[in-house]
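Table S2 (continued). Query chain:
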Amino acid sequence: MNANEDLEKLLENFPFFIRQNLINHPNNDQLIEIIMDLGRRPEARFINHSEYLSQKIVSWQDIDYITKRISRFSNENRAGIERTLHRISCMRNRQSVINGLTCRVGRAVFGSINLIRDLLESGHSILILGKPGVGKTTIIREIARVLSEEMEKRVVIIDTSNEIAGDSDIPHSGIGRARRLQVSKSELQHQVMIEAVENHMPEVIIIDEIGTELEALAARAIAEKGVQLVGTTHGNCLENLIKNPSLVDLVGGIQYVTLSDDEAKRRGTQKSILERKAYPAFQLAVEINDRYIWTIHEDVQNSIDLLLQGNYVVSQIRQLTNNGKLQIKYKNYQKNNFSKYKNNINRYNWKEFNNSNQIFIKNENNFSKYNTKKLVFYCYSISTNLLKEASAKLGFSPVITSNIEEATVIIGLKKHLKQNLRLKKLAEKTNKFVYSINSVSIFQLTKLLKNVL
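Corresponding output:
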């Protein structure tokens, strides 16, 4: 990996006693951040350790010396240095006077995504999870460069804190040919995300630090428009997102569903269970466990379903060895009750219809042919992805149309269907079947499809 860090441009803004120690330090290539707190000794944090830089304590003059040489601090108490990736964050006292600085070293690390380069070529949306400081921003910066330069895609970066492309009107070369949309206030990030899709025709949108419910909903809206997403959020694993009410929409949302007695008995669960509400905004998830050890969820939808059922599946663990080789290990943890439930779905007794048209339905051992009427579905006020997902659970691929006149079956939310009198008249006139569900739920939609078939 090659790093372009412009370390000298950062250090030239520090007092002499700090600058001199770091310039000659043998491990300055592993420097992560410099900490300066009033009345304490300055501290340098490296990848594997931290150490004091001087016996001299930090004074008001030292902090003032730095703040006058960098850009102004934003509402989020962050500032930067022109044409670099470095970030300076400040702490303030009750009178809003700066009494501490955290100076993060920004690096454009070429080759930092070798562990997941093949996933970028798949075209799926990718969510990157990790605790603060593990290098999520460095990873998506390199992803932006690879997608825009090497794969020649139209990439737009939503840069809220100017951490991805630097604190300048001219973005840093580390993002390649990707374009950068700056956000004036962090609370407006979700609006800028939608604006990027509507105004700039991107094929890929890159978002750093998705942290609010509005940003999660905006990510879902972008995914529905067919744009590839690459985003980061704080959290060690997918399970953290399920427990986070602000971010749970990134993985489809969670709701309580009450099963019938027979269904609960068949599944071997309680009557009230947790279930995913909708299709996830991201198809792939990457958990940054360590600098060179990442966990890959190849199917976020399946992983979330297993977690909600009390099961857990780790699709892949990828590790970069000391000699630069990539190791991939597969681990699959699965409980017996889930296997039983899965087999029960595959053995479902399908009804036969006396009609010449045929569809193929997946059985436990092979594809069995059933005679049934031709069904063309039209989704009203529900996502087509939700219908596809419910159909996949039952083992068939539905024919979906965007033209209501071509449909033979209309499926929608009950409250919306009641309000549309024109649709009701059209269905009566053309003898179309109209089915309604009370809420957007995989369970309700699957149950409805069973009745339709």
